[in-house]
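### Sample
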Amino acid sequence: MGSTLSTGRLLTATQRQSSLMQIRKRVQTLLYLWARFWIFATGLEKYEELVWVIVQQFKHRVYRTATERHAFFHYLVIRIIELWLRTLHAVLVPDVFTRYLCVTFVLHIVYEMQSVVCQVVGNTCLKLTVKGRRKLRLRQQLENAKTFQERQSIAGELDKLEGKDKWREDPVSRHFLYKRVIEKTQVYKKLKLENDVRGLMFSLRAGLLRKHWGLGNPRLYSVSNVGTKHVIEEYLNTIVHSMNVVLRAKGTDKEDNDQLSIDNKLAFFSETRHAYGRSALMLSGGGAHGFYHAGVIKALIENNLLPTVIAGSSAGSILAGAIGVRNDDEVLIFLSGESVNLSFLGPNITEQDRAAYIPSFLPSIKMLLPQGGFELARDAFVLLNRFLDKRFLLDTKTLRDCLRGVMGDYTFREAYDRTGRIINVTVTPLSADDYPQLLNYLTAPNVIIWSASLASCAIPNVFCPVELLAKDENGNMVPYYREGLKWSDGSVECDLPMERLSELFNVNHFIVSQVNIHYKIVSGHSAFGNGQTGSLMNFLKKQMKAYIKNIAEFVLNTSVLKFLDIGLIPLITQKYEGDITICPTNKIPAMTLLRTVLSNPSRETFPDILQAGERACWPAVARIRTMCRVEFALERAVRYLRGEQALEDERRSGRKAIGRVPSFYTSPSSMNLSNLDESPPTVFSGTRS
């Protein structure tokens, strides 16, 4: 009996062990298959072989002499290093980045060749018919138009010839929700007919968004030469007229009077404006090509489309500061060219520089040089030796004097109080451990604008870094930071400070004037249109930018290749496009741009530069007007009501309101409101030295 029990227990234990062995084998098999799957999926077969060789060599190592022992460990170290490099290659995949780079380079060439071929073939085909020749003539006239009105007239004629006027009249489109736009337009019209002010306020407060229903789709503005579809224009007209009804509404009884009081209407328009968001004009860096921004600004002012928020980096900060201290009329006078100082860039070689940096052998060969050659060689040697000694090519004195003459000694707050323009200038600290700063009337109210622009223009190795200057309580000019911090070019690390503008001023729509030479090289979709080639290049460049950014963070954080942490990575990876991007230098040859990037324009060439900026901006006017019309109407309503509120408070109390009230709120142009479609008012009251 006992032997039978012990035999049964033994069998049970044996079966249990057998079951465990089977389970273990199955688990091992599953793990092996799982590992084999991932080795196959990731292409690590060669790595597996290398690891197996290392393990086998170490496991079966046999050496009889010290030399063999040394050779074995040398072999083992080489194999481990090889494994580490292969692992690094598998993780960082540099071959994928290289393939993307090569494909992008080829696509660039294909795109440029395709553009040229399509243009040549298209023009050749058009020349075969009378209608085609007329199209070519109108297109040429469109490109060479002298004024916006002339361009619109030619564009209308060209649209009729090409049948694009029918496209504008037809509300149907797959690029936006046209049925909702039509329905909403009818709702607003019905509320206006019924004089239902409360209903209008409710609908406007709940339904105003800038890009809702696809109205921001770029394809809606790339078909017609005149503008977008009539149904969209009618929708915007109805909204602005409805806002006018609310603004001018008076109550019929005490309850209505309370609800339609100035305070309540101001709260309504302020909250609606905040929900709708703001636009900002971004002026990029680009050396002497920053003068092209002048034409863009002129075109926007003439069409009442210049945003209140304006940001400039490097060369863009010069134009931002210049218009920040002037109203619209004075900006147009300033940009006429007669009063513009064009001598911003210059070597500024002093007699002390010549005495210190002229080589001793140069005077002895003066007679051997052609006429004027000695002065040219002398200045070249002075610039070279000064650069080797002080690490900058041009002195800031010439630039500083020009900036001060153009902008005066205004601070950011003084300029805002005077004109209502919110000027923003980007500067980069000299220390690599600090971050770029955005200077404006909120973040740096007492900083003098020309000193901020000078710091933003201080291109590394071209200009020396500079200090920011500010006004103290007595109006004296003093260093902004007592520690003596130095600042340099703002466009290197933050050409377009979109994120910071969104935080400070609720900006959600960016109009970019882009004149950087490297823009098309590092940019994506907007620089190459909406075709498949442009979309593919956009995808590849986004992938490469993300790769460079992440690799840079990994490498620089490990203190390897720290010398790259000088703004080169942000220069490549930052964003260069906005919601609407205007490129005035798009049709200028690259060699011409390179040759003129650090040379001042002449009096003869400046009108052409101004005209090029205008012509680049005109095709975008219809889209900018659509995107900004409601915003500008809200802005004007808020300013008008704030002025009314200030006057009402003054009448009640019999004295002026205490505190700092910007002059543009109570200016005649703000108080005498006739139409919300007018541009936001600005006031210029005298000059400041």
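The chain has five domains: 46-92, 97-167, 178-276+630-653, 277-342+406-517+576-629+654-689, 349-393. This sample (PNPLA domain-containing protein) is used throughout the tutorial notebook.
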